[in-house]
Amino acid sequence: MTITFLLNGESVTLRDVDPTQSTLNWLRENRGLTGTKEGCNEGDCGACTVMVRDAGGAKAVNACILFLGQLDGKSVTTVEALAGDDGLHPVQTALIEEHGSQCGFCTPGIAVSLATAHLNGDMAHDDVLAGNLCRCTGYAPIVRAAEKASKLPAPAGITQAPDLPEVDGHDPMQPKDSDGLAQALMEHPHATLVAGATDVGLWTTKALRDIRPAIFLGGVSDLKQVEVTDAQIHIGAGVSIEDLRQLMLGRHPHFAEMLRRFASLQVRNVATIGGNIANGSPIGDGPPPLIALGATLHLRRGDIRRQIALEDFFIDYGKQDRQAGEFVEAISIPRQADQLRVYKLSKRFDQDISAVLGAFNIGVEDDKVTTARIAFGGMAGTPKRATHVEASLIGQPWTLETVQSAAKEFAKDYEPLTDMRASADYRLKACQNMLIRCYHEDQGTASSVLEVTS
Question: CA 66, CA 194: separation in Å to the nearest integer?
Answer without folding.
Answer: 10
